[in-house]
Amino acid sequence: MQMKTFAFCLTIFSTIANFAYAEKADQDKPLILEAEKVSVNDVKQIYDLNGQVLLIKGSIIVTGQDGHLQVDSEGYEFVDVKGEPDKTASFRQRREGRAEEFMQGNGSQVIYDAKRELLTLTGDASLKRLLDMQMLDKLNGWKIEYDDVKQYYRVIPPQNAKPDDLPLARAILSPRRKATLEK
């Protein structure tokens, strides 16, 4: 039973205390929205985007076909962007510290909660941690959660999936000591 659970849910914890976090300056940057159609409810701070969505906030770049953005009373964004059947939605963010370290992912849906610093990629998802355009970590699976505050990745299958129907979650991880000391 534990082996099946492992195949269904892979959690990888970071053990290095000085591991970089998301770019903190992003919160104070202006929000740039681009799409074929933008609907704005300024009172409720809700934005709906349709067609060739591009959302930029500091080092965060989110692309897709349809998007929904809501800003809470504290100024934190909740972003939900969907791709097209033949083109995925994408997310990219620079990491705090090193100038050329990024988290980059894609899936049929990208959800980012700026308050909790939680990224969720769904539907044939992949997530990479890059340093100087070199891949350090890579995860593939149906649903990937990346919690920047708690520093963990988690790969989850669909709720009603049968073990025989799923591809296994897959992770390629660089040794933390080498990855953090090389630069």
Series of H and E elements: HEEEEEEEEEEEEEH
The end-to-end distance, rounded to whole angstroms, is 42 Å
* Structural class by sheet pairing and helices: mainly beta
Rg (CA only) = 17 Å
- Please indicate the percent range of residues in DSSP E strands (runs of 2 or more): over 45%
Q: Got a strand count?
A: 13
Low-confidence parts = 1-20, 178-183
What overall geometry do the principal axes of the alpha carbons give? globular
Main sheet: strands, sense, barrel: 6 strands, antiparallel, barrel
The CATH homologous superfamily: Lipopolysaccharide (LPS) transport protein A like domain
CATH topology annotation? lipopolysaccharide transport protein A fold
Mean pLDDT: 81
For the record, what CATH class applies? Answer: Mainly Beta
Strand order of the largest sheet: 5-6-9-10-8-7
What is the CATH architecture assignment?
A: Sandwich
Overview of the structural elements:
This protein has one domain (2-16, 28-181): lipopolysaccharide transport protein A fold. Strands 5-6-9-10-8-7 form a six-stranded antiparallel barrel. It is mainly β and 183 residues long. The protein is 7% helix and 54% strand. The longest helix has 7 residues, at 2-8.
